[in-house]
Specification:
GO biological process, one term: peroxisome fission
Keywords: Membrane, Peroxisome, Peroxisome biogenesis, Transmembrane, Transmembrane helix
Protein name: Peroxisomal biogenesis factor 11 family protein
Shape: globular
Largest sheet: none
Oligomer: single chain
Helix content: over 70%
Main location: membrane
Distance between the termini: 12 Å
Membrane topology: Multi-pass membrane protein
Strand content: under 5%
Order of helices and strands: HHHHHHHH
Amino acid sequence: MSNGDTLDKLVVFLAKRDGIDKLVKTFQYVSKLAHWGAESSLPELAQRAKSWETASGLSRKAFRSGRFLAGFNALRRGPVPVPGELGALAVLANAGEMVYFFFDHFTWLSRAGVLEPWLARRASFVSAFGEAVGYVFFIAMDFIMIRRGLRQERELLREGAKDAAEKEVRRIRVDRVMRLMATAANAADLIIAVAETDPNPFCNHAVTLGISGLVSAWAGWYRNWPS
């Protein structure tokens, strides 16, 4: 791939809302790890990293304004047109995501000083709880679809190497990679949400949060990168 092609794809990637979000999320969690690593030996550098982390986090919240409408619209349209358990899972997943993004507005406004500071903690808890619920069901949906894809792939391979079958097998494999990336991102974000709703030494450790944030950002980067 030429440098020109890479640059063109980067421009397309950064033109997307999700592309910008993944880039700033990378800044946020790289700076979190930098703050942790420099806190004891380089306090001035650690403070600058902390400021970068805070600014990145607030920027992401501002940039996600109105995103809860996507979940609301998904609920308004009804379950995905797939038979079986996916319809119910889609409703629960989108409801959780809608709660997450809606209450994230109050967290952002409170931390920015527009609303009362005490509201940040409560709004953040509700937002993280909805986020965790949504991720659990999104992960379940992806596992179900991966399982169905594996079953369909085995059936196609038994039929023989027909051109149509080969194309369908390639499509299934690409879809599986994308769903595995989505599962990795959702699992990493679930850890971050659990750290907010039920603080514990493992989830709340800077290294755990930093690595989880980067896994989520880079998996999302992979999924959104232009083909």
